[in-house]
Specification:
The chain has about 450 residues and is an alpha+beta fold. The chain folds into 2 domains: about 140 residues, Ubiquitin-like (UB roll), CATH 3.10.20; about 290 residues, Creatine Kinase, Chain A, domain 2 (2-Layer Sandwich), CATH 3.30.590.10. Helices cover about 35% and strands about 20% of the residues. It contains 13 helices and 14 strands. Strands 7, 8, 9, 10, 11, 12, 13 and 14 form an 8-stranded mixed sheet that branches. Helix 6 runs antiparallel to helix 9. It is globular and about 60 Å long. The model has no long low-confidence stretch (mean pLDDT about 95).
């Protein structure tokens, strides 16, 4: 992080004709919030403030003025991380952006800010001479424009004039059908410094998965945050929507955000492998930490009512926290790899999860397991289907919410203030959901003609 402006900023803005800077930060849903500032003011280091409650703004745009948020609604300072300053590829006129951190006026990091929470979790590793390494896999749908939320999403028209009808998993032909979008999106990822690895057409109609390269957790979370921002903006330019809901289409594949995680020591050695290449005790402790703590912070990985539609028995979306080697039915999968790349793939999070919070919760759980020297359950046999052991994770929003709010484990991982504020915001969102009547209710509960 770099919180001091350099003298070259104004020259950079002049060179590229930059008039304004998007001063953005992720709210609890991973949406970009912030203010637009004149480039000259940004280059001079002008102070920027915003209301403290905005990092906890609900997906509906509402706020929860729970006792954790004072009625006076005080300010926090937005402090740019100048290392994130880049040209915004989604803007029609030259514009830059920078990701900001939220600080209270007394200089303390804002307890409700997602990026600050991840930084604090990474600092716990640093204090032990360790560095976590993360790589996310992000799935999403490209859909036709959807102006009526009561109507289901449909596939967009491709260059052949037809909409995809399915059965195109891993098809390069169908990956090419929306080439104008992909060409501009790929160019945007280069501009944004997003280190994308493989690109595939997933199982759902016009569903895709892009893997990001492994790296520093905060940097990777920044990339995932900007990935979503860019995908949505560029899809709109091409007459489509980029949809990151966990279950956007009934009967179709859900969208996930799998997290590959490992930990290295000060010499760069993967602590999950010993000198002979075998698994270490720390490897088992990390897995056990995920098994022990994730149920209590499930709301981080599945933050909305829709999120729980993804966890269906018989699909590859996990319903419990069993673990196994190269077994995609488990919540925690160990991919085949050499000792240096030994890692744990956390398959719980949906694509709708905030990447900062999901990475923070997962890493905090793994570290707690190592600190407490927890013991994992036995690994499942490679051919055993984990879903046969049943659901052991919260199956819907309300149980997940209740478990998180009352959990001392959750508060230990992420702090009292964050858990109280997060759950308060989620209560507001759920109350909003209850005010709408859906298609299922009309279909089965209304009198039949």
């Amino acid at each position: 992080m770099q919180h001091t402006p350099g003298p070259e900023l104004q020259a950079f803005f002049d060179q590229h004709g930059i008039r304004d800077v998007e001063c953005i930060f992720p709210d609890i849903s991973g949406y970009p919030r912030g203010k637009l500032m004149p480039a000259r003011s940004f280059a001079s280091g002008a102070e920027l403030r915003i209301a403290q409650a905005i990092p906890m703004q609900c997906i509906t745009g509402d706020y929860s003025y729970d006792p954790i948020f004072p009625d006076s609604d005080p300010d926090v300072r937005l402090v740019p991380d100048y290392s994130t300053l880049k040209i915004a590829p989604w803007s029609s006129t030259p514009r830059a952006f920078a990701i900001h951190d939220c600080f209270e006026l007394d200089g303390q990091p804002c307890a409700f800010a997602a990026r600050s929470l991840l930084q604090e979790v990474v600092a716990r590793y640093t204090a032990q001479g360790l560095t976590p390494v993360v790589a996310p896999e992000i799935e999403f749908y490209l859909t036709a424009p959807n102006n009526d939320p009561t109507v289901p999403f449909t596939a967009p028209l491709a260059r052949n004039g037809k909409a995809e009808v399915g059965q195109s998993a891993f098809s390069l032909n169908m990956l090419n059908e929306l080439a104008p979008f992909w060409d501009e999106f790929r160019s945007a990822l280069v501009t944004l410094g997003i280190n994308a690895d493989t690109w595939i057409h997933e199982v759902g109609m016009t569903q895709y998965e892009i893997n990001l390269m492994h790296g520093d957790p905060v940097d990777v979370a920044d990339q995932a945050f900007l990935f979503k921002y860019a995908a949505k903006e560029i899809a709109i330019k091409h007459g489509m929507n980029a949809v990151f809901m966990a279950k956007p289409i009934s009967g179709a594949q859900g969208s996930s955000m799998h997290l590959h995680q490992s930990v290295v020591d000060a010499s760069g050695r993967n602590i999950f492998s010993d000198a002979t290449g075998d698994e270490t005790a720390a490897f088992g402790h990390f897995i056990a930490g995920l098994q022990s703590y994730i149920p209590d912070v499930m709301l981080i990985f599945a933050p909305f009512v829709n999120s729980y539609r993804r966890y269906v028995s018989g699909s590859q979306a996990p319903v419990n926290l069993q673990w196994g080697y190269d077994n995609r039915t488990t919540g925690l999968r160990i991919p085949h790899s050499g000792p240096a790349a030994r890692r744990v793939e956390n398959r719980i999070a949906g694509a709708d999860a905030n990447p900062y919070l999901a990475i923070a919760a997962s890493l905090a759980a793994g570290l707690a397991g190592m600190d407490e020297k927890l013991t994992p359950t036995p690994a499942l046999a490679p051919k055993f289907n984990s879903s046969e052991l049943g659901h052991t994770l919260p199956r819907s929003f309300l149980p997940a919410h209740a478990q998180m709010f009352s959990s001392q484990k959750a508060r230990k991982l992420l702090g009292d203030a964050f858990i109280t504020g997060f759950c308060a915001a989620k209560t507001v969102e759920y109350d909003s959901y209850l005010h709408e009547v859906g298609a299922w209710e009309r279909r089965f509960l209304a009198p039949q003609a």
